[in-house]
Amino acid sequence: MMNFIKNFRKDENGAVTVDWVVLTAAVVGLAIAAYGAIETQTDLLSKDAALNISNEIGK
Prior knowledge:
The protein is mainly alpha-helical and 59 residues long.
C-alpha cells in the first residue's frame, strides 16, 4: 500500500491532463469571445453598408 501511495504522488500524468484541460478551456473561451465581437461588428458593418446603398439608390 505504501508503494502505491509513493508512486501515486510521483506520477504527474493527472496534473498534466488537468493543465491541458484548463488551457484548452481558456482557448475555447477566447475563441467564443472573439467570435462574439466579430459577429457584432460584422452585423453593424453590413447594416451600415445596406443603409448607405439604399440612400445612394434613393437619390
